[in-house]
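Tokens as discussed.
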């Protein structure tokens, strides 16, 4: 059932990731929740205002989102924090997946996205099919991330072909971070395209005017707030997310952090 949240203090686990949760730039040392800002930080603020609870933001100690070790059956990251009851909520760019849904509960999504292509402006490439048809322009993804897994596990022949191409490419087309991938596209003068989540691509193209998203989304997924299994708070939080969605508040928050803050909106 739903629980009364009034004046309770909930522990929120999150992870540093632009523009969801970032360290606030400040000349003086900041403590507690004041250290952080971003979309996820504003989102928990809105939800807490609506339901009347307090909260304490804590960065996940191992710096991971949460994956299952198939051998030990143990989770790491934010998922583990919830399972071991060190946190009541996980709020981040945390993708709702089948595997994670087996372990924790998710709220209704607050953001939808999909894999897409980051490339330089003014080129004849218009889709994944165009990339797959040629070998001159190299393309890659974050090593070991969900985008790479999407290609690895795809049953669609175009994406299977792209995966073989990526796997066999030397030097490697995989990167250690999204930032490295973005830099490679920017410096590559059209010789490299990077596959990543559309939300991240939008963030980058607001700040680097030579880059653009090519084609649409190759899959669809969502970010949601995670709670421990059978959390009494999930139903109440669901209602607030739906309300924020319908009032256009989620859209306003996205515009704020993508287009207005921290160097956004300079590409027109």
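Sequence:
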């Amino acid at each position: 059932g739903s629980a009364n949240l009034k004046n309770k203090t909930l522990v929120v686990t999150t992870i540093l990731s632009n523009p969801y949760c970032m360290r606030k730039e400040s000349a003086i040392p900041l403590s507690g929740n004041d250290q952080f800002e971003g979309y996820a930080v504003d989102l928990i603020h809105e939800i807490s205002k609506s339901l009347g609870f307090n909260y304490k933001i804590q960065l996940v100690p191992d710096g991971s989102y949460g994956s299952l070790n198939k051998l030990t059956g143990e989770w790491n990251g934010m998922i583990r924090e919830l399972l071991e009851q060190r946190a009541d909520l996980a709020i981040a760019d945390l993708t709702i997946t089948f595997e994670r849904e087996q372990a924790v509960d998710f709220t209704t999504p607050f953001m939808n996205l999909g894999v897409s292509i980051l490339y330089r402006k003014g080129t004849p490439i218009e889709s994944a099919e165009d990339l797959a048809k040629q070998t001159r322009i190299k393309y890659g993804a974050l090593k070991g991330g969900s985008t790479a897994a999407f290609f690895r596990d795809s049953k669609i022949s175009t994406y299977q072909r792209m995966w073989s191409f990526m796997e066999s490419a030397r030097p490697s087309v995989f990167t250690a971070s999204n930032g490295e991938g973005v830099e490679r596209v920017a410096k590559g003068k059209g010789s490299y395209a990077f596959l990543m989540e559309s939300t991240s691509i939008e963030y980058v193209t607001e700040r680097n005017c030579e880059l653009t998203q090519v084609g649409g989304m190759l899959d669809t997924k969502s970010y949601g707030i995670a709670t421990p299994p059978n959390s009494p708070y999930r139903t109440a939080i669901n209602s607030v997310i739906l309300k924020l969605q319908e009032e256009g508040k989620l859209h306003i928050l996205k515009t704020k952090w993508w287009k207005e803050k921290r160097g956004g909106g300079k590409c027109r």
